[in-house]
Specification:
Blueprint (H helix, E strand, L loop, with lengths): L5 H26 L4 H4 L5 H27 L11 H4 L4
Helix pairs in contact: 1-3
């Protein structure tokens, strides 16, 4: 990707770094004694926000992956969707 478009390479690398940081925040909470199911539990605004930040980072990085695929002129890649992420109001 870097050879084809350095800007997209940097964008993707930066977004991957953000995702790793957000995932590490979930792990840190778990290591401190708050299991994942507790983090996403009703009424746990801070835990919910931590997990949502990781989800948002994953969605954002996927957009950059799609741009990288286009830059590399690869065949179309199908990304699996999620009802809860694609249409959260349903």
């Amino acid at each position: 990707v870097k050879e084809a478009d350095p800007a997209i390479d940097k964008e993707l690398s930066d977004k991957l770094d953000v995702t790793v940081t957000k995932m590490e925040a979930i792990k840190a909470r778990a290591l401190a004694g708050e299991a994942y199911d507790q983090q996403i539990g009703e009424g746990n605004a801070e835990g919910n926000a931590t997990v949502q930040a990781a989800i948002d980072a994953l969605v954002d990085q996927t957009k950059s992956i799609e741009r990288a695929v286009g830059t590399l002129k690869l065949n179309a890649i199908a990304f699996e969707g999620s009802d809860s992420l694609d249409a959260p109001d349903k």
